[in-house]
Write the structure tokens for this entry.
Amino acid sequence: MKVGLLYSRIRKDEKLLLGELRDRDHEIEKIDVRKEQFNISEAPDVFADVDVVVDRCLATSRSVYITQFLDAYDVPVINSAETADVCADKVKNSLALEAAGVPTPNTEVAFTTDSALETIEEFGYPCVIKPVVGSWGRLMAKVESRSAAEAVLEHKATLGHYQHKVFYVQEFVEKPGRDIRVVAVDGEPVAAMTRSSDHWLTNAAKGGEVAAFEVDDRVRELVADASDAVGGGLLGVDLMETGEDYTVHEVNHTVEFKALNDAVDVDVPAEVVDWIENKVATETEASV
């Protein structure tokens, strides 16, 4: 199998995948997206003869556009352009989860500071303001008063990029000091961990402590439904415990798994490569 790996920086996650692929004697084409040009009709030579491309782009914009080009070139890519488009935008993500009946935090979008402030006041304090595009908990704000809301909204209004003029306001979910990250392949959990912190943001990227989490039947059901809602693939599904149930607050399409791999007994990259091999084999058989 010849695997193309899209990247702009090789992190530990990519090293784990590359190491597993090499151990199995697969041919690898590392593709630095910063050095490529994408024509609307002709695929770059670097994609010739690849059986599948794995998108590990660090920048969301690159991921979204390059997967669309690969789809146009009829080059198999993980994850699909559809999945990348939905997961890259928190508004589309929330809409997809809601449409699929997956429990997700109440969310409202406004387009002016006045209407956003009205939404925040209706939600009550605290509530959360998030950028529509972003990861690692960056530029997220827990708003606990009207004066804080006014300040955050003013800052966003002056940041310049049009996406900051989309005010994504979400209810604040009281969680037990942790959330849950499940890495899944086409809706089947590979492994899961909790991310705990005294801070309201529990992302591992923000220093949250990680520990293995045993997936129960309800989490398995929600992960499968959330995966289907965004188009499937190799995903990170983030959940919060809400007492007797869970809520899914986000699905990630270029999921990082190095922290998970260290926290669990499962060999995560091996499971991922197993899935890629099976996926390529199945698609190859179907095309014969």
Notes: The chain has a mean pLDDT of 92.
